[in-house]
Amino acid sequence: MSMIVNRRDLEFQLYEVLGIDSLFKSTRYASFDRELIDEMFNAAETLAEEVFLPFADQLDANEPRFENGTAVCIPEVKAALDAYAESGFFAAGFDADIGGLQMPYVAQAAMNGMFSAANGPVYGFVMLTTAAANMLNAFGSDEQKALYLPPMIEGRWFGTMCLSETQAGSSLSDIRTRAQPRGDGAYNITGTKMWISGGENNICENIVHMVLAKLTDASPGVKGISLFIVPKLRVDESGNVGEHNHIVLAGLNHKMGQRGIPNTLLNFGESGDCIGHLVGKPHEGLRYMFHMMNEARIAIGQGAVMSGLAGYLFSLDYAQHRPQGRHPQNKNPESPQIPIIEHADVRRMLLAQKASVEGGQALIFYCCLLVDQLKIETDSNERQRMHLLLELLTPIAKSWPSEFCLEANKLAIQVLGGYGYTHDYPVERFYRDNRLNPIHEGSHGIQGIDLLGRKVAMLNGEAFDVLLEEIRQTIASAGDEFAKEKQALQDALGALKTATAAALACTDISQRLANATLYLDACGHIVVAWLWLRQAVTASAKGSGIAADDAFYAGKQKAARYFFRYELPKVFATLDLIATLDRTVMDMAVPEFIGG
Amino acid sequence: MSMIVNRRDLEFQLYEVLGIDSLFKSTRYASFDRELIDEMFNAAETLAEEVFLPFADQLDANEPRFENGTAVCIPEVKAALDAYAESGFFAAGFDADIGGLQMPYVAQAAMNGMFSAANGPVYGFVMLTTAAANMLNAFGSDEQKALYLPPMIEGRWFGTMCLSETQAGSSLSDIRTRAQPRGDGAYNITGTKMWISGGENNICENIVHMVLAKLTDASPGVKGISLFIVPKLRVDESGNVGEHNHIVLAGLNHKMGQRGIPNTLLNFGESGDCIGHLVGKPHEGLRYMFHMMNEARIAIGQGAVMSGLAGYLFSLDYAQHRPQGRHPQNKNPESPQIPIIEHADVRRMLLAQKASVEGGQALIFYCCLLVDQLKIETDSNERQRMHLLLELLTPIAKSWPSEFCLEANKLAIQVLGGYGYTHDYPVERFYRDNRLNPIHEGSHGIQGIDLLGRKVAMLNGEAFDVLLEEIRQTIASAGDEFAKEKQALQDALGALKTATAAALACTDISQRLANATLYLDACGHIVVAWLWLRQAVTASAKGSGIAADDAFYAGKQKAARYFFRYELPKVFATLDLIATLDRTVMDMAVPEFIGG
């Protein structure tokens, strides 16, 4: 049993539920077919299993060290990333015209998920490099693209995202990094960036930092932010790497998880000129960042699903092999102990993990497919529908797995008991790793504000209506055997509509948003319930007669039932808080927390 | 602001809500009064703050090392425990006739909570020593007590609990450690014990292991288990410490949290005779252990509350001093940033922590007071009522804080954002430390089985009826201002009764217990809601006119409202699963988890 992927589930979700083979009919993805994708999955699984997975524990125990101004990772990291680059995986997602393979995003997410599950922090270097290259590709000049993209796509240069500063995390309008025109078209960058993953590593030939900074004439607030390419080593017109660009590693953050990738504090331009190159137009930096945010946020969600999956697979395997105790009705202490998966509570904890992990996976793949479809859809109405749906679902795709696949990791530890609490087993590492996901790339709270403060309200609620319509279609098409689930989902939609309307009618913006995070969780539960119903409907139609397949399809239907019985009912209490515009939180004055 | 205790809340919970001063009227506790207890609290707070707290981070980063067969802790651990012993705190809870101070258990829990919040792993040595000494005191012979208790009460010898083995954690009937009579009244102990906290440390003069083992003629199962005193160094008749007793440190477990106290694998009698002394009668060991279990399990719950409290206090302080962002209605980016406690979502996360931590504290103190009252109550009917209530509440006292104060720790990290994810701040440590509590001393699942499989059913549900009666009395006595809360609690009790009756009527014991863990959580929520109503009623009656007190009482009422609005409604969906004897979990066959 693989510890990093359930290939049968990938097959089911990608082809049987989502029908991603329809993408291959488009010109953009015509060079792909299922066979080719399977081959790439095979290669990825082998590399992830043989090269990424074996040192994940060791990497966690040996975080990068600060040596001579560099974040030094253990040598296995470079070896794994070199192997990844040599196999051409860095190129997978990029367009063919810039040297990429133009693989559909949804297939790419599935493929890279194996690396993420095998060794999340190492895959982090890839994710950041891809994100930076995507942004350059979308907004950079032809010269910039020609200089920086090829080595990034080949995996020789890595990328970072330099947004946050110590005093400006969620509040980007308060960044202080400055860009001063040099007179030659370039800029001198000065300032300090915090939480920069992958910064000043000792692995790659050069690092391309994508830096948010303010021009000296910028207006205050987010409108004054511009985006710059700031390489670690300067690059001449022919693409040759030259002298150091005065980016100094000021410190490493020591984290509870994700310990394999350095997280850095970087000083720009303190020791000498740090030259940056403006991307696109001045003062448009945040817009560019937001343009790329959808994919980045979906990628975070997928990372959270993969941590959840790794814990699920490990604890499922463990539960089948660890003997302990007997059935409650068995009073014979001399009978052999049974595998703990026989205990109802262990089975509950495994089923809960399956429901969260495969439900979260369905959410991520659904969003990824929207990204692909948006690239090939020509009908403008349909494009607008897809765009709205993706905008609405993005905060959920980022947040729901970050919250509920973390809970899955908590259960994986519980299945292993005391052993799960030790470093001898990886489940506590997954729990520590996954705890980052509700924090970075827009915290859980920020996503709630995005959803309730912006997304459900935009265009008079048009995006929200598109989502409701999609869910209603699934309800309408599901057979009578799903009568209970259909009714439950219908009821939940009713409660969601009532709550949403009440929130949007509230003119006090603080009060409207007081419980936005809980609204986000409840919306996520409804969306995931909907996607579970889709999976159950597909599985129910499939009765194959092959035992293993029958078991798979039966499992899908039971996990869906679990989600509808155990999880979906939770949303009603939450939505009632939103609908009544509960002020409990607002009314709590600061001195009342402690008093006395 | 203290980072380890809210003294005002202690005052409120102990005196204003529980009225523990009534204990001082009894002969047993006559030497105590509030003034003396305050003085002891002052001394404890100073010692915990000045000696325990300062090295908690350092200790986490430097777990005990395996050196020459000993678990070597950093020297600060011994210094702190020596100071604790010198101040006489080890003696606090023991009876006066054996050299103790005979302090009420409830006051002792509050006092020791400060050490636990300041440095949980170091306090762990105390907790284990106290538990072992209590067991000896209850079941040991006079000679055993005379030999072993004085040095334990003085804090010179420590204790451990040796129950689990690698193949027998939750399933104690499967232990393999054996005791062979030596012919001189003592026994040779042979076997291996796993998960032994505090084993073979380098701190104390001797270690008194309380070991479960089977006599050679024992019957199979839990009825064949006996309890032995097995000292690290043999003790002669005068109490002098002599030669090594052949207990060998076979390994250290490296844990995700609670890293300051060694957790060990111990071999008994492999290198030579390991002499053990039978406690009480043969084959009664498990009964003795269970007799002590109530206090031990309450102590675990209190430890979980203290981890939660430490995270709450830290994140509350941080939120008042960390500026970030502006109110959503403020569009001026040049206005100063506000402390994050001004943001509704941060306030929600703090209020949620307060509700869990102070609610959990109320639960623990309520149980502790029952322990004290049982020691002084003379009316046998009343004693029986208290006994039943304590039996019923114990699995909840152990589990509810372990689950929900861990969630509080998760929120404390979230309040700090990226900083909370680093070792520079203690909140991630509290989260790692607290993750142990749902695992040890009877896992969360085991507690659920204890509650639904045993406690609510015992004596035809008499204990359950006593609890319902207590809750109904609170509902009856609360004023009309609490009409909503009274109704909500009444409704919850109705659902609880229905669910409990349905479960008890189910003759398939596996099916009855299939969702026992969720039943445990729901029961806990109802109990904590009841205790919050008690706090709110008390606070509402207190309007003092002193601003700080008014704020304190207002905060109590709002936290109660929070619990009733945000938490209690969750129980209905859960209790419905129990009432309908949901089989989803039972019906999931092993091959269906993965399939394919």
Sum this structure up briefly.
2 copies of one chain form a homodimer. Chain A is of the alpha+beta class and 596 residues long. Chain A has 18 helices and 12 strands.
**What is the radius of gyration of chain A?**
24 Å
Structural class estimated from helices and strands of chain A: alpha+beta
Number of H- or I-type helical stretches of chain A: 18
The oligomeric state is homodimer
Poorly predicted tracts of residues of chain A: none
The chain-level mean pLDDT of chain A equals 96
| β-sheet strand percentage of chain A | 5-15%
Q: Which percent range fits the helix content of chain A?
A: 40-55%
Largest interface: A-B, 110 and 110 residues
Which terms would index this structure?
596 residues, 54% helix, 18 helices, two-stranded antiparallel ribbon, homodimer, five-stranded mixed beta barrel, alpha+beta
Task: Provide a descriptive summary of the structure in words.
2 copies of one chain form a homodimer. Chain A has a 5-stranded mixed β-barrel with strand order 4-5-12-7-6. Chain A has a two-stranded antiparallel ribbon with strand order 1-2. In chain A, strands 8-9 form a two-stranded antiparallel ribbon. The first copy, chain A, has helices spanning 7-17, 34-52, 56-61, 75-86, 105-118, 120-139, 142-153, 285-321, 344-376, 380-416, 427-434, 444-455, 458-477, 483-505, 509-512, 516-540, 547-567, 570-579, and strands at 65-67, 70-72, 157-162, 178-181, 187-197, 206-215, 225-231, 233-235, 241-244, 247-252, 263-268, 275-278. The model of chain A has no long low-confidence stretch (mean pLDDT 96). With 596 residues, chain A is of the alpha+beta class. In chain A, helix 2 runs parallel beside helix 5, helix 5 runs antiparallel to helix 6 (120-139) and helix 10 packs across helix 16. Chains A and B meet through helix 1, helix 9, helix 10, helix 11 and helix 12 of A and helix 1, helix 9, helix 10, helix 11 and helix 12 of B.
